[in-house]
Amino acid sequence: MKSIREAAEEFGVTTRTIRYYEELGMLKPERTGSNKRLFSNAEIAKLKLIDRGKKYGFTLEEIKEMVLLFDADRSGRKQLERTIEYGQKQIQEMERRIEELEKTKQEMESLLGEFNEKLSKLKGMEK
Amino acid sequence: MKSIREAAEEFGVTTRTIRYYEELGMLKPERTGSNKRLFSNAEIAKLKLIDRGKKYGFTLEEIKEMVLLFDADRSGRKQLERTIEYGQKQIQEMERRIEELEKTKQEMESLLGEFNEKLSKLKGMEK
DNA sequence: CTTGTGCTTTACGTTAACGTCAATGCTAGA
DNA sequence: TCTAGCATTGACGTTAACGTAAAGCACAAG
Question: Which of A88, A53, A45, A39 is closest to A70 using CA atoms?
């Protein structure tokens, strides 16, 4: 069980940020007797998901949907099926993004290739 | 040469958005005699880069740096070297993001694997 | 010629994702 | 017991990335 400060430092965010995520319903930390937040392993795992999600440009609303996969009441079969279906959509979206990233990366690499050629020519000329 | 409207429609954004990118110095379209914007292939290529960049969460400021690789005055050797160096950094950053995306994707896949097991058990029980 | 349609700039409005500040409360240590 | 250092909940401020509205210019159709 970690305090809000420990959790915040682990992910390089402020405590305000963590409280904000709670406001949005993404986190549900327990409380101590004196009303202070306590973060279990499960809540820390959700923070990890949020951290990653932000880095590649999902909105908090989109991330929330993912996070809820960890929270969902999976007791019923119907609920379980819906969760799986939604999860698969998320995975497809990630695959799409990976492809686009690689496409752009390749474009930049070929652009840099051209620049390198130009540079070689310049080097050849100056001797 | 495309009009601002054609360019906007090609990327599913408004004309306001395109003017905003110009405000930020990311685009420099030519003008007609009556002061209307005209987008060459090079400007459209930059818009393509912006479009991609946004999709995986680079800020416009970050994207601007990339776009400037296309614009840079590459006449001098020093300038060319700097451009190449910067481009390589951008590529590394993309590689980092691709790795993270794949890591998260795998985590979600294993989570979904667990759910599928649970679902199988439920199905087994109900018969 | 004027009416409509689309472009122009200028300027203020909006939303997400926090930052910052104020007022208050617990609690460990001098 | 008092105070320093954390936590708490409001509440208002800020920035990026546009949206929206106003006022005017250009030009093709009727």
Answer: A45
